[in-house]
Amino acid sequence: MIEMKHITKTYGDLTVFSDFSLEIPEGEVLCLMGKSGRGKTTLLRMLMGLEQPDVGCITGLEGKKISVVFQEDRLLPGFTVRQNLYSVCESALQQEHMMRILTGLGLEEWIDREVAVLSGGMQRRVAICRALLVSYDFLILDEPFRGLDDKTREIAIKLVLEEAKGRTILLSTHDAEEGKLMGGKILNLDAYLT
């Protein structure tokens, strides 16, 4: 169980969280919903260790490997899809796995093209593929399906759920349909943080 206990987080005069607590059960899917500016990304950044709460603590992450799809693709623009993905592959087995994921996402024909020439939706899929290739216990997804059409989004969600089966997944999204397709518990921060 990953727990956020009595978290307070402020930026100057803006209080994003005040005495906020959350339990993320091991091996389950939790979908964070809420309007822009509600604190979804801040919450994820605290779980990643990129930001610290002003008050409170986070437990249950000790020894856990975290993989992330950020809101921004964070790809290496001067490199090909293959080079971007090889940057996280440590073995030939991972490279085979990479091809299976790319094929599942419909990107196998683009493997030797520079990511800069790919559409935004294709770049999103490369970022998803990269996150699934590393060894992880906890998968954090910050609006990972943004820019994908409905059919591609469904394919990507199905693939993520297959690849991350049995691991803890935390999804941040504005889209209730994505939360439904992920099949996890939905936590609406708009209602939770009144």
TrEMBL record:
Q: What is this protein called?
A: NitT/TauT family transport system ATP-binding protein
Q: Which GO terms describe its molecular function?
A: ATP binding; ATP hydrolysis activity
Which Gene3D superfamilies does this chain map to? P-loop containing nucleotide triphosphate hydrolases (3.40.50.300)
Q: Which SUPFAM superfamilies does its entry note?
A: P-loop containing nucleoside triphosphate hydrolases
| TM region positions | none
What InterPro entries does its record include?
AAA+_ATPase (IPR003593), ABC_SmlMolc_Importer (IPR050093), ABC_transporter-like_ATP-bd (IPR003439), ABC_transporter-like_CS (IPR017871), P-loop_NTPase (IPR027417)
Keyword annotations:
ATP-binding, Nucleotide-binding, Transport
Q: Provide the ABC transporter domain boundaries.
A: 2-193
> What organism is recorded for this protein?
Anaerotignum lactatifermentans DSM 14214
Q: Record's Pfam families?
A: ABC_tran (PF00005)
Write down the superkingdom of origin.
Answer: Bacteria
